[in-house]
Each structure stands twice: as C-alpha cells, then as structure tokens.
C-alpha cells in the first residue's frame, strides 16, 4: 500500500507541475502582449513628438527667412558680426 501512496503523490506532483507550466506559459504570453502594446504606445508618442519638433523647427526657419527678407542688410551685418566673434573665440593666436 505505501507504494501506491507514493505513486499517487508522484502523479499529483506531475499534474501540478504540468498545470504550473501551462499557467507560466500563459503568463509569459500576457507579458509579451502587454510589452508589445507598451512599445507601440511609446513608439507612437515618440513619433508624434518628433513631428511636433519638426513643425516647430520649420516655423522657426520660416520666421527667420521672413526677417532676412525684410531686413537683408541688417541680417548680413549680424551674420558677419557673429562670424567674427566666433572666429576670435576659436583662433589659436591668444
């Protein structure tokens, strides 16, 4: 009789292990699905942010172009002055 109880306990353990494996596989599938959804959400957010930055950059460039068209001489003088200052800052003749 004791061998029968041991055999039954072994079978019960095998069934529990099989059930645990199945549940673990289901949980991993859920985690995989959730992480994929989360990654898609992040990707969409990054894409929208990049589009917004691109649009703001274009608006800024358009504004600068308009100012240069309205005041070409002043724009040229400012560009020359900034270039001169940068060249003095980076010159090696200190």
How would you portray this structure in words?
By secondary structure, the protein is mostly helical. The protein has one domain (2-90). The protein contains 2 helices and no strands. The chain has helices at residues 2-70, 72-90. The N and C termini lie far apart (100 Å). 0% of the residues are buried. The model has no long low-confidence stretch (mean pLDDT 84).
Layout of helices and strands:
Layout (H helix, E strand, L loop, with lengths): L1 H69 L1 H19 L4
Helix pairs in contact: 1-2
**Secondary-structure element order, as H and E?**
HH
**Global morphology:** rod-shaped
Q: Sketch the major β-sheet.
A: none
- CA-CA gap between termini: 100 Å
Radius of gyration: 35 Å
Would you report the number of β strands? 0
Q: How many individual helices? A: 2
Organism: Leucothrix pacifica
Protein name: DUF883 domain-containing protein
Keywords: Coiled coil
Coiled coil: 3-30
């Amino acid at each position: 009789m004791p061998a029968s109880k041991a055999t039954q306990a072994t079978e019960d353990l095998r069934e529990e292990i099989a059930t645990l494996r199945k549940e673990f596989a289901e949980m991993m599938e859920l985690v995989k699905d959730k992480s994929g959804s989360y990654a898609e959400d992040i990707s969409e957010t990054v894409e929208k942010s990049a589009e917004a930055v691109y649009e703001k950059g274009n608006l800024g460039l358009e504004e600068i172009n308009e100012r240069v068209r309205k005041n070409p001489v002043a724009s040229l003088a400012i560009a020359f002055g900034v270039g001169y200052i940068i060249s003095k800052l980076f010159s090696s003749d200190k």
